[in-house]
From TrEMBL:
The keyword Membrane applies. Keywords: Membrane, Transmembrane, Transmembrane helix. This is Ion transport domain-containing protein. One of its GO terms (cellular component) is membrane. It comes from Otus sunia (Oriental scops-owl).
Length: 752
């Protein structure tokens, strides 16, 4: 009986954990499968998976063409090891799901095909290499599949789904844009083709229709403006009207339409995704409740003891006092059980970071009470706490910025740096004297750590530089660079001093984790285009030092680039000769400036259709992904920023205030709290477990926002789902979302 109850608790904890982290993995409910599922989701397993995924991707750095060449045997062994790990991870996943579920999941099929293709290509390449036959490692292009399709990368898959769902709407706008581009190109051919005009390089101007289409497409990106217009403009000022009309229609109208269509569709599809997750989370919490429920009068409830055991399993790292606080919220009337409505909210409560704080007095107040509590000491501490102290150092920082910009060779400027360093050190010492050190250097006190590390790093570098310069003929530019950078970084402190700056910075910091999704998306696109670029353009362009006497060194090692803008601009180092250089070129293409110079340069050393590679990258990366990224940032910032300014308190904050154990965020920022605080493990229960020990114990919400924008939006959409409406059944839900198909005896997870 006890063993069955333990297994039920473990299963319920798995449901709650999945609801908390929005995991969409279907798993069996047998005891053995549940234990395997816990192992599958363990952070070590997930970290190891990501490690081998990125190790597999990084092999391109060491394979031919390599940045750091390694023997083929070494790279092939590492690749086989990665593939074995991926197969093992896939096998582990198969153990926790039913066979028909596993084989219906497209992700699993993609991973298996990628493993098979990689092994086949590796074997063929190795055999051909033994006979000195050069071949292409075509399977390297499938390596990003592992990053996309493992269950841990659901956010990246969601981004790809957003792109896929947005493509039909983008296609109509793109076709209309292409029609406009082709029409303007035809007009340009008729207007300028027969006038024998020449470009600045002495080439025929607008003679070839395809070249005109390419040049005007580049003009849409503004990369060749006004250069492309000047021959016609020099011939007649009236021709400027043609280019003005073209820019207005295609750059300002159509590019804005792209952003509007992407933004609108992104919001629509994201809302559908979040609504789906909301239903799934609701279903999982209901299933967890049904496993643990007991009858209490006319309703079903979960007993307090079981609830505590459940929370310990789901969130073992939270403090006892935090757990008791959540219990007080869930069991507001302290009846000894949690009803269905309160139980369903547990996943959201666990997503809010609560810091348990213990009031402590300053150590100097215990060691030297007479000195620390004297009138002079109290005056000094009150002065440090006053806003005037902060404003004074803000002025000092601004004056320091002026001195940094001045010539350091002047002796007085050099001496002033020591004065500023001394002032900053005095500031830190005064704050440590005023505020309890363990609170001042708490794990959540980012700016205090930042200030202290920057100041002492600058002090160390300055002393080292001065000492070495005073010896022989030493002159280390590297140490000077470090000193200069550290001095400039000190100016960032001003951001924390201005309330509105702090709000904006905190908002940006909060959305950084969600921006990593698009970092993964960009990595996938870059990897694919980098590998294709290396196969197409490797060795076509070479970089030579300025004093090189090699043939065609001024033409990047290729006579086809003679007198080209690419060679004259000394872009030779921008090539696809290795993985790192390819990434740099793709980053430059993403910025857009001068991307047509790259396209023309690589087309000159290969064939003119090679420009299609650069156009394809611009469409995929700049028009689609960057616009989706902008849409994401706009939505994320609006949600985070609006909630940052909101006065609405969460249930946790309300309960903390009801218990009289709260501390306001502004009190922590202004550091006016009595003595100071540190994180601590304490029981909220007093004797008998009925009254809180408020003496020496307070709580605060680390952030009034949810940790991700998806969580925020999900919380907003969940408000539209009444508790009584538990959503569709598993079978009905899966009929709505066929990709999530799972049998009825498996969990209500989707395999999306």
């Amino acid at each position: 009986m006890a063993e069955a109850a333990s297994q039920d608790l473990l299963l319920a904890a798995a449901f709650v954990s999945d609801a908390q982290y929005n995991r969409n993995i279907p798993f069996k409910t047998s005891p053995e499968a549940v234990r395997l599922y816990y192992l599958y989701n363990h952070w070590i397993m997930r970290t190891a998976t990501y490690f081998f995924i990125f190790l597999n991707l990084s092999l391109a750095v060491f394979e031919e063409p390599a940045v750091y060449p390694l023997p083929f045997l070494v790279t092939s062994v590492v690749e086989v090891l990665c593939l074995v790990v991926f197969f093992g991870r896939l096998t582990h996943f198969a153990k926790v799901t039913l066979r028909n579920v596993f084989w219906k999941d497209t992700k699993n099929i993609c991973i298996m095909v990628a493993i098979l293709l990689s092994l086949t290509d590796l074997a063929i390449y190795g055999v051909l290499r033994m006979y000195d036959v050069r071949s292409i490692r075509w399977s390297r292009i499938v390596r990003p599949i592992f990053l996309i399709n493992f269950a841990e990368s659901r956010q990246i898959r969601r981004a790809f789904r957003s792109i896929r769902n947005t493509l039909p709407e983008i296609t109509y706008v793109f076709l209309l844009f292409m029609f406009s581009l082709l029409m303007f190109s035809l007009m340009a051919l008729k207007l300028f083709g027969e006038r024998n005009l020449q470009t600045a390089e002495g080439l025929p101007y607008f003679k070839n229709y395809l070249e005109i289409v390419f040049d005007l497409y580049v003009l849409v990106t503004t990369a060749n403006s006004p250069d492309v217009m000047m021959p016609a403009f020099d011939f007649s000022s009236w021709y400027a009207l043609f280019f003005i009309a073209f820019v207005i229609v295609n750059t300002y109208i159509f590019m804005s339409l792209f952003l509007a269509v992407v933004y609108n569709n992104y919001k629509k599809h994201l809302k559908n995704e979040i609504r789906k997750l909301a239903y799934m989370k609701h279903c999982k919490m209901i299933e967890a409740f049904n496993i643990l429920k007991e009858e209490e009068g006319a309703q079903f409830v979960v007993r307090e003891a079981q609830w505590k055991q459940l929370v310990k399993l789901v969130a073992p790292d939270i403090s006892n006092s935090h757990r008791e606080l959540l219990l007080r919220i869930s069991d507001d009337e302290q009846k000894g059980f949690i009803d269905k409505k309160s139980f369903v909210q547990l996943a959201d409560l666990l997503n809010i970071q609560v810091i348990t704080l213990k009031i402590r007095s300053h150590p100097l107040g215990q060691w030297m009470p007479g000195v620390y509590k004297s009138a002079v000491s109290r005056f000094l501490r009150s002065m440090v706490r006053h806003r005037g102290f902060v404003w004074t150092y803000d002025v000092i920082i601004l004056i320091n910025a002026i001195f940094i910009a001045l010539d350091e060779e002047t002796p007085y400027i050099s001496y002033a740096e020591w004065v500023f360093l001394a002032l900053y050190i005095i500031e830190i010492l005064l704050k440590v004297y005023t505020y309890e050190p363990r609170a001042f250097f708490g794990k959540n006190q980012f700016w205090n750590w930042f200030d202290t590390l920057i100041i002492f790093a600058a002090l160390t570098a300055t002393i080292l530089n001065t000492t070495l310069k005073s010896t022989t003929k030493y002159n280390s530019q590297q140490i000077l660079d470090i000193v200069f950078i550290l001095r400039v970084l000190r100016l960032i402190r001003i951001v924390d001093s201005i309330q509105r700056f702090r709000v904006i910075m905190n908002t940006l910091i909060n959305i950084v984790p969600t921006m990593l999704t698009f970092g993964g998306l960009t990595l996938v696109v870059y990897c694919v285009f980098a590998i294709i670029g290396m196969e197409l353009f490797h060795g076509k362009i070479q970089f030579f030092p300025a004093n090189s006497n090699a043939p065609h060194s001024l033409e990047c090692g290729n006579a086809a680039l003679k007198d080209s803008l690419f060679a004259r601009a000394k872009y030779c180092k921008n090539n696809f000769n290795n993985f790192a250089s390819s990434f740099i070129v793709l980053m430059e293409l993403t910025v857009v400036n001068q991307w047509h110079v790259f396209a023309n340069g690589f087309a000159n050393v290969t064939v003119q259709p090679a420009k299609l590679y650069f156009i394809a990258f611009h469409i995929v990366m700049v028009i689609i992904i960057v616009n989706i990224f902008v849409s994401f940032i706009l939505e994320a910032f609006f949600v985070e920023y609006s909630l940052e300014k909101s006065e609405v308190e969460t249930a946790i904050e309300q309960k903390i205030q009801e218990l009289g154990m709260g501390v306001q965020e502004d009190e922590l920022q202004d550091e006016h709290l009595l003595d100071n605080m540190e994180s601590a493990e304490h029981d909220l229960e007093g004797e008998g477990g009925t009254k809180p020990q408020s003496k020496g114990l307070v709580f605060k919400i680390a952030s009034k926002r949810y940790r991700t924008v998806d969580s925020l939006l999900q919380r907003m959409f969940e408000a539209e789902i009444p508790l009584e409406d538990e959503g569709p059944s598993v079978e009905e839900f899966l009929n709505l979302f066929p990709t999530a198909a799972i049998p009825s005896n498996v969990t209500s997870e989707s395999a999306a």
